[in-house]
Amino acid sequence: MPALDIAELGRQLLYDPKNPLLFNHGFFVFFFTIFMVLYYYFRNNFAVRRYIFCFFSLYFFYKASGFFVVFVIIAAIVDYLVSNAIFRAKSKQGKLLLLIVSIFFNLGLLFYFKYTNFFIACSNEFLGTNFNLLNILLPVGISFYTFENLSYTIDIYRGQFEPARKFSDYLLFLSFFPKLVMGPIVRAHDFVPQINKPYIVSDKDFAKGFYLILSGLFKKLVLSDYLTLNYVDYIFDDPARYTGLENLFAIYGYAAVIYCDFSGYSDVALGIARWLGFSIPVNFLSPYQSKSITEFWRRWHISLSSWLKDYLYIPLGGNRKGTVTTWIFTLAFFAGVFMACLKLFNLSVTVIISLLLLLLFLLPAFISKQVKAISAGFNLLTTMLLGGFWHGASWSFIIWGILHGIALAVHKSWMLLTGKALAGISNSRWYNAITIIITFHFVCLCWVFFKAADVAAAITMIKQVLYDFTPDAWPGFFANYRSVLAILLLAALLHAIPDSFADRVIDKFHRAPLLAYISLFFLFVLLYGFFKSSEQVLPIYLKF
Amino acid sequence: MNSNRRIVVFVLSTCILYLLFSLIFSLFPAKWPSLQRINLLSDIVLQDTLKVQSSAGTETGQAVVPDTLIAEPAKQPLKNLSLYTLPHIVTSFSADTAQPALQQFLQKLAALKNGDQKQIRIGYFGDSMIEGDLLTQTFRRLFQDYFGGSGAGFVPISCPTSKIRQTVTDNYSGGWQEVNFKSKGKKDKLFLSGYLFTGENEWVEMRDRTVKESPAPVEMYLYYGHADGSMQVLVNGVPLTVPEQPNFGKLLLKRNKEPYVKLVSSDARLPLYGISFETPSGVIVDNFSFRGISGVEFGAIDTAFLNAVAQENNFDLIIFQYGVNVLFRPNDTNFNWYARMLKPVVQKMKRCFPTSDMLIVSTADRAFRYGDTYKSAIGIDSLVHTQAVLAYETGCCFYNQFATMGGHNSIVDWANATPALANKDYVHPNHRGAELLAGHFFNAIMRDYNKYIHYNRN
Q1: Could you say which residues from 262 to 291 on chain A have a Cβ atom under 8 Å away from some Cβ of chain B?
Q2: On chain B, which terminus has fewer CB atoms closer than 10 Å, C or N?
Q3: How far apart are CA A17 and CA A11, in angstroms?
Q4: How many other C-beta atoms can be found within 10 angstroms of the C-beta atom of residue B292?
Q5: CB nearest A541 (choices: B35, B292, B424)
């Protein structure tokens, strides 16, 4: 006869490093139910409601990352005080000084936790030093809340926004649990005004929230997890062992995984926020339907790309001028390209590649006859390079960012060169299909660097696809990986459904009885259980 | 209309219903085992019936022992089967553990160390665990550093992992015809590498990267099979006659300080196997890896052919490392079938290589996902035991690689370590892990060697 394990029940309330809290944990069901009941009960008492919300958010963070929660609280206190001081400061210099303090504080923390070991490794590699790497753990969510803190203080410095009046307002903005771990990056001027409003949710909000939560969980827990565990992880782990065909599908698989993972998480966050009466801007808009890399960045991780645009690209000079930072990074970029090519090729090839890249960035200026087009290209490149570095402290992420930066420049030149000539066909179906396929494959190529263990592994993978591609491996591949391919196809089909379709369905069914929603939820739980206990798909050898 | 009440009712009722379902699952866990994964209460309810996995006996370390095999050991009182469980040692199962295991092999090693100019050859047979010269490259280097010798040993004309092999780099033309263990066609004349190549005007070039500045030139040999009449090949552009052999031949191509050779086959009737880089004195380690096999494939090779190989290219030690490919289903625990199939093959190898010591190396750890977590295959103890009994019954020595690498769940720890020591397929140690395994294995043989030295001194 089963019995209740009281000691374990107590342990469940504490942080477990082996099992940090996520939306898919049984614990989250209880957490969210208790929170919902309290939130609803105190819905008209804004102060109590806010404290409850803060408490639950910080507790969620504690369950997800242990005592790193202290950093969120410290960051909130510091930025709350500094931002108020900026707002009250009379002189421009005073405001600027305080802003610099805030930037140093926020970026300093991020740098220490995220980049110390990277720079130690660089110093050991390039300067011949012999420092030991430090044992630093990255606090969960720090990349996200650092950016939120920065945008907040910068907005106040720019006079675009009055600081939050109450500390708990600011703390809630920063720690709002649905988005704490993986974003989206929320802006204070969108969010803070919603905190102390009556709790009103429409029928449609309920339906849309339900749809977002369920589809987000489906993407994350069924599609992404299945592909990761049963295919993508082990191919990426040792690509040289597998044929080009398997490697190619691992890349497609990872494109599906990262989208499902990231947008799934965002959707759940958006859905929960919707249920609590908050509206957070959408973060992903079927990005693989993009017809160009420029469009891709308007559809992929929108909260990040708009943040980078407002707080990095425009301060760098945007499309108007270059700044010292632009030129430092541009020089570093060309030096890096030169050194890297020299390692791979001989001197003349290196010079040719470098000159071609230079030409690429000068081309828009030649075509448009505007010198500022040069700095616009380099500002974009710098933004993408730093954006890549934000994703993780390694050369792979820098290369990923640079590739996107170069592609944006190529697209710009392409538009300038062919914009008029192709005006007639640029809206035709087949032209769009071709551009979608090219864009998708370029994004996939970049994902190889994003996911592979290091640059060497990424290059091995690309080489396998190019030089070890044996189509006769297909029958064996298909027989062994049928289930993986089916899930991949399902992911592709779901991605191809237009967003408006979901809205039309919600419009039609949002008045469905509660029982229908409950049944749908349990149907999902059963499906999740089925996938969780499904037999593992194991690799096979296709080379014979 | 404000729907906030609807949300709270939905959340509350879903939670209560979910709890109710979970309670029912907890009361009847055996009825819906797969639903336990979505049971909200599974962490906080003590289950006396939840030991589903331990029913196979693996949690207690007791393997499922093939009945037919265990009866015999008791008849030989001087031997002790249970020695197989010990990590870090090579055992001949002798109850007197002060006795060295690999007697003949160690005698030759000691003579080499004493200054005898002779070649000692180790044939290391394995599956994907050693492909790309992983493990063997370190194993070889350690031996050559201590006992002398140079060269990477035998290298097939081509193989799936030749591009990631760091010890010998190669290039070859695309028209080679190939027969191997997994392809269609007769396999009685395959070499120990599991391959046979033919081609007209096909070429291969190889460079041995392991050869450092050695005073002795490296000898490069061609391994080939029977053709009617003598044939011609081009070696670095120079024609060379390949004399006819009834079964198997080994022909010196070049003796050179630069360990590079380019070979062109001019007649498709001449079966070719590969090229060997070696020195006449010292330890040579051949890597015979073939992915996806279990060792029983050698049964297909003709006995007369193997006898000829023993004549031309004898081994002083044969290492036989398989097993991971018979453990391809997470819930298998009985490997009697494997023992039945492998035993005659091991006996055949022993008959064909009568002067070689033979050492069976157990499978390394392999994990599957059971529920949410990766754990060692529940049949792993049984498989290692089966392999040990096989070694015991066929008079081979045994080395427990599974125990040496850390036993249960070690592959999970290796794959999750930073830096990782194994791949995320929870099967293959990576190059770092392979280096560790090679080091452990070499040390185990050296421990045996020191026993030998000590034993003979007294």
Answers
A1: 275, 277
A2: C
A3: 12
A4: 17
A5: B292
DSSP states of B80-149: -GGGGG-TT-EE--BS-TTS-S-HHHHHHHHHHHTT---EEEEEEEESGGGGGGTTHHHHHHHHHHHH--
Q: Is B374 on the interface with A (CB under 8 A)?
A: no
Asked if the ipTM is above 0.85, the reply is yes
> CA A263 to CA A260: how far, in whole Å?
5
| C-alpha to C-alpha distance for A284 and A264, rounded to whole angstroms | 9
The percentage of chain A sitting over the pLDDT mark of 70, rounded to a whole number, equals 99
Q: Name the active-site residue from A25, A189, A301, A391.
A: A391
Distance CA B319, CA B338 (A): 18
Contacts of A2 in chain B (CB under 8 A): 26-27, 29, 45-48
Interface check A513 vs B, CB under 8 A:
no
| Local structure of B156: helix, strand or coil | strand
Q: Please report the residues numbered 217 through 276 in chain B whose beta carbons come closer than 8 angstroms to any beta carbon of chain A.
A: none
The mean per-residue pLDDT over the stretch A265-282 comes to: 92
Which chain B residues have a beta carbon less than 8 Å from that of A12? 43-44
- Residue segments in chain B with a per-residue pLDDT below the cut of 70: 33-34, 45-77, 214-215
Task: Enter the tokens of residue A498.
Answer: 């237009």
Sign of CA dihedral B272, B278, B283, B286: negative
Q: Which of B48, B164, B369 sits opposite A229 (nearest CB)?
A: B369
pLDDT digits (tens, 9 = 90+) for B32-87: 766 777 887 777 766 554 343 333 333 333 444 444 444 444 444 589 999 999 99
CA distance B41 to B123: 55
B367-370/B373-376 β-pairing: antiparallel
| Model pLDDT for residues A318-354, shown as the tens digit of each residue | 888 888 888 888 898 888 888 888 887 788 888 998 8
A189 is catalytic: no
State the number of CA atoms in the 13 A half-sphere of A188 facing the CB: 27
Phi and psi dihedrals of B368, rounded to 5? -125, 165
